[in-house]
């Protein structure tokens, strides 16, 4: 007799991260930090090598205390995980049952779909306006029975955000028993005056959580580390469903050093500010439509024409050793997502797109 998985699991298309770069190529497909990681975090990671025979602190207390101090929040209301991806999955495991409704914006992060499908829930995508989440369509999709609404703000892969007043309007008009998950993975790159990471909303409204990551501004994508801030009752539930040692010891040490290295964060932010503006101005100047971004990547649109399409551009870039992210899985077949790299990478991708435009 053949062992069968739970119904619906074989319908899931596994998440595919940005393509790895072959030797000698430049990887601009995964929104990694162009400056690498904080040297203080790297040193803490190396020093952890002397303690690899020990189990980590199951509650990641040292890391939670450091996050709490730097963010000005209660460490007891923080849960750490193996990337924010794990925390999103734990939320689904804790609160979703087969048939429940999950809502996301049209071009929401693909992990939300995986969370819903893994739990047998129904996923509803709300139309966006100009590649930006639309609170009215999210509320219409949620209705009176949505169990979870996921909102990445800023959003990946579009790079857009909605202001604090709209996030508040979303929370205020959702049913009280609908969980709003604010995915703020790119929050450190944003300095728009009307933006909020959502941390204050967690304190003001029930059934609201924020997830954050060490993969972007901190440059720790390789150690898989993230955290969630939420009401005490929800945090308690997530602790009950997570693994007892879900964050490894080197990650705890590296994350503790990284969250305290504000100088590296500022340096990363300054680099991104400079080169994000460069990419948007230069690529836009070549005649391509570029969606305004507040993240560490740009969304570039191509015409749906043979020889000029996003797929053609992707092949052209690959031939020149530049690996970017095609977006067919997101329903954006005519766009490419390009990560902000170091100066050489940024100039090379502009030169390659200029050559492609002239072919």
Automatic annotation (TrEMBL):
- Report the Gene3D superfamilies cross-referenced here: Aspartate Aminotransferase, domain 1, Type I PLP-dependent aspartate aminotransferase-like (Major domain)
Reaction equations catalysed: L-histidinol phosphate + 2-oxoglutarate = 3-(imidazol-4-yl)-2-oxopropyl phosphate + L-glutamate
Domain (Aminotransferase class I/classII large) spans: 25-353
Q: Which GO terms describe its biological process?
A: L-histidine biosynthetic process
- Spell out which residues are annotated as carrying N6-(pyridoxal phosphate)lysine: 216
Cofactor (UniProt) = pyridoxal 5'-phosphate
Pfam families attached to this UniProt entry: Aminotran_1_2
Protein EC: 2.6.1.9
> What pathway is this protein a component of?
Amino-acid biosynthesis; L-histidine biosynthesis; L-histidine from 5-phospho-alpha-D-ribose 1-diphosphate: step 7/9
Q: What molecular functions are annotated in GO for this chain?
A: histidinol-phosphate transaminase activity; pyridoxal phosphate binding
* Keyword annotations: Amino-acid biosynthesis, Aminotransferase, Histidine biosynthesis, Pyridoxal phosphate, Transferase
Which family would the database say this protein is a member of? Answer: Belongs to the class-II pyridoxal-phosphate-dependent aminotransferase family. Histidinol-phosphate aminotransferase subfamily.
Task: Tell me how this protein assembles.
Answer: Homodimer.
Name the UniProt record assigns to this protein:
Histidinol-phosphate aminotransferase
What's the source species for this entry? Marinicauda algicola
């Amino acid at each position: 007799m053949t062992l069968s998985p739970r119904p619906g699991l074989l319908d899931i298309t596994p998440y595919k991260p940005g393509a790895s770069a072959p030797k000698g190529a430049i990887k601009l497909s995964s929104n990694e930090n162009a400056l690498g990681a904080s040297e203080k975090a790297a040193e803490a990671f190396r020093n952890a090598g002397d303690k690899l025979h020990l189990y980590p602190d199951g509650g990641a207390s040292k890391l939670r205390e450091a996050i709490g101090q730097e963010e000005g929040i209660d460490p007891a209301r923080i849960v750490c995980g193996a990337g924010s991806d794990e925390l999103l999955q734990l939320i689904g495991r804790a609160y979703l049952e087969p048939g429940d409704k999950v809502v996301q914006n049209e071009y929401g992060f693909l992990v939300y779909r995986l969370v819903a499908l893994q739990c047998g829930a129904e996923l509803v995508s709300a139309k966006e306006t100009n590649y930006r989440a639309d609170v009215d369509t999210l509320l219409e999709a949620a209705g009176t029975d949505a169990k979870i609404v996921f909102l990445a703000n800023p959003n990946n892969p579009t790079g857009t955000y909605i202001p604090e007043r709209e996030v508040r309007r979303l929370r205020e008009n959702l049913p009280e028993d609908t969980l709003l998950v604010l995915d703020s993975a790119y929050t450190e790159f944003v300095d728009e005056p009307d933006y909020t990471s959502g941390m204050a909303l967690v304190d003001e409204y029930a059934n609201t959580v924020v997830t954050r990551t060490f993969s972007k501004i901190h440059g720790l994508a390789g150690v898989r580390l993230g955290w969630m801030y939420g009401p005490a009752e929800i945090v308690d539930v997530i602790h009950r469903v997570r693994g007892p040692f879900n964050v490894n010891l080197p990650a705890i040490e590296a994350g503790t050093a990284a969250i305290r290295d504000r100088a590296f964060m500022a340096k990363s932010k300054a680099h991104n500010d400079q080169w994000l503006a460069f990419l948007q101005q230069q690529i836009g100047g070549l005649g391509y439509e570029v969606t305004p971004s507040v993240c560490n990547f740009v969304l570039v649109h191509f015409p749906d024409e043979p020889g000029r399409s996003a797929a053609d551009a992707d092949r052209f870039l690959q031939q020149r050793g530049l690996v970017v992210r095609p977006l067919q899985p997101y329903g954006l077949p005519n766009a490419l997502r390009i990560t902000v790299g170091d100066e050489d990478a940024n100039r090379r991708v502009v030169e390659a797109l200029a050559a492609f435009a002239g072919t």
